[in-house]
Amino acid sequence: MEKKYQVFVSSTFTDLIEERKEVIQALLELDCIPVGMEMFPAADEDQWSIIKKLIDDCDYYILIVGGRYGSVSPTGIGYTQMEYDYAIEKLIPTISFLPRDPLNIIVAKSDINEDARKKLSAFKDIVQKKLCKFYENPKDLGSVVSRSLITLIKTKPRPGWVRASFLPSQEANQEILNLTRTIEKLKVELALNASNPPIGTEDLSNGDEYELFNFQAYSDAKGLRQSPHVITGSCILTWNEIFKEVSPYMINECSDKEFYSMVNKLVQREVDEKMTKEFNKKGFTYSRALLLSEDFQTIKIQFRALNLITESKRKRAINDDVTYWTLTKYGDTVMTRLRAIKIIKKRSRKSK
User: Fold this and answer.
1) With contact defined as beta carbons under 8 Å apart, do 71 and 113 qualify?
2) Rg of the chain, C-alpha, whole Å
3) Helices (H), 247-292
4) More confident residue, 44 or 307
5) Which long-range contacts (CB under 8 A, 24 or more apart) does 70-76 make?
6) Distance between CA atoms of 49 and 23, rounded to whole angstroms?
7) Residue 65 CB contacts under 8 Å (≥ 6 apart), including other chains
8) Torsion angle defined by CA atoms of residues 80, 81, 87 and 91, in that order, rounded to the nearest 10 degrees
9) Terminal C-alpha separation, the chain
10) Per the CATH hierarchy, to which homologous superfamily does domain 6-165 belong?
11) Taking Cα atoms as reference points, which of 97, 27, 81, 19 lies closest to residue 58?
12) Residue 292 CA from chain centroid, whole number
């Protein structure tokens, strides 16, 4: 949607007629709407109220400084400076343009009164503490304004103005409102569903149900030419026991290899004592137990089917072909339920 930006042009008037003309032309070429109060002498409160209202409606504010301070209000402050101060107060993006060499300004366009000269100098000091640019002559000023305003629009975007015909109709606004409400309703439903099992998983083995998993246990080799003694066995684990073990490592993500390693550590804790005794009976020293690969694949598929884990989609190096796993929102809820520390009611101390 094409926008037009309204720009307030502030300056003294009679000494900067050519400069204002160039600035306004530059704004029109940028498809901006120039606004100024040069047709007002700015000498009473009603006109000052109009000026403030116009500044309020503008997207950007441009100040042109020449060799004169300009008309002064009853408070002793110039109206041009009042406009500038008001724009700053209202946080309207502002840019000022000052003559590069004030000595080149002709006497007829300069303040002769010493008090006015001091006020102009003080005003310039204030202006130069904010964003400002310098110009050589009226023609140069037009070019400087064009480049500067384009940059200001990019760095500090504003609402701007559009044609009324581009605005959505009342029916479209109502439709947008209805869609927004529907989206909010769906967000609430998703948040509620995050704490419940996914639909369609009622018949899948999960939670505290037991499952048999197979492993192979190995002995330490007694010599370089001797193969380790191998015993095939099985252990019983619940799905919650396995998920409680691996889920914290998937809060960020973990690789397929890390996933297997964590499950295998759980298996080893379950069988190490039993396998040590079994190997000792046969005269071997027990070394380690390894979960069978097909059983690990079963665990992985089951967790995916239960919507507890999902493949991580994080961007990574092209040569990284490893599969990574992370928790789903529901998986995070289940992990929190399994791992969070429960409150234990404290017994009251009895005084002796």
Assistant:
1) no
2) 38
3) 256-281
4) 307
5) 70/11, 70/12, 70/13, 71/12, 71/41, 71/42, 71/43, 72/119, 73/48
6) 24
7) 11, 96, 97, 98, 99, 120, 123, 124, 127
8) 160
9) 81
10) Toll/interleukin-1 receptor homology (TIR) domain (3.40.50.10140)
11) 27
12) 44
On whether the CB atoms of residues 35 and 9 are closer than 8 A, the answer is yes
Architecture of domain 210-339: Orthogonal Bundle (1.10)
Residue 226 has pLDDT above 70, yes or no: no
pLDDT in tens, 171-207: 777 888 888 888 888 887 776 666 677 777 888 889 8
Q: How far apart are CA 131 and CA 93, in angstroms?
A: 9
pLDDT at 163: 74
Bridge partners of residue 95, in order along the sequence: 62
